Amino acid sequence: MSLLATVAGTPASPRFFALIPCAGTGSRAGTAQPKQYQPLAGLPMVLHTLAAFAAVPRLARCLVVVAPGDRFLDHPDASFSIADCGGATRALSVLNGLGQLAALGAEPQDWVLVHDAARCLVTPRQIEALIDACEHDAVGGLLAHKLPDTLKREAGGRVAATIDRSDKWLAQTPQMFRLGALAAALEQAGPAVTDEAGAMEAAGLQPRLVPGGAQNFKVTYPEDFALAEAVLRSRQP
């Protein structure tokens, strides 16, 4: 069956896979190496991310997609596998990773949880909550956080309007969709789409919003590292 086939029926027990795109350079972070490999609380950031997924027994496999030639994670343990098929954009890395999962035996009807390598504060409980909320959903969904701040629209460096925030959410990851449907949506949406839910929306679908949390932020800017470090250390025994 083709990877991009749409499956009308679903099996009694589809499996759950994790896919971690880890091929970015993190140019906004201001680090000498890709930000996902920057040390935080004694470990490279991505290893904190992988530890959270390793603690979720329902996952059949966790696949990390790195850039061709990247050898930082050359010694994976039993909790994850490596695919050096990263692309020029996140969407291409995810699409290539989906193809690799299919080559490893994943089926179009299986679920895939795509998660940012640099979103290292996600917890096993949040991952489990997403699976619980979406495993019987017709579309799938994503962790997200209700916008807590007043939202302004800008024009020329000044406030142009205050926007109603009551229906606004900050998209997080993991984002969980069926492998075949997600691959088809990504191919249709093109390489510029910034997250998997956006690709599914472009295909006319409405992903489910599952409450995440303020600490599940993506380490992006230099000031984010200190906050992530503090949270990680606060969780240590």
TrEMBL record:
It is an enzyme of class 2 (transferase). Keywords: Isoprene biosynthesis, Nucleotidyltransferase, Transferase. The record marks R28, K35 as: Transition state stabilizer. Pfam families: IspD (PF01128). One of its GO terms (biological process) is isopentenyl diphosphate biosynthetic process, methylerythritol 4-phosphate pathway. The keyword Transferase applies. Pathway: Isoprenoid biosynthesis; isopentenyl diphosphate biosynthesis via DXP pathway; isopentenyl diphosphate from 1-deoxy-D-xylulose 5-phosphate: step 2/6. Belongs to the IspD/TarI cytidylyltransferase family. IspD subfamily. Catalyzes the formation of 4-diphosphocytidyl-2-C-methyl-D-erythritol from CTP and 2-C-methyl-D-erythritol 4-phosphate (MEP). This is 2-C-methyl-D-erythritol 4-phosphate cytidylyltransferase.
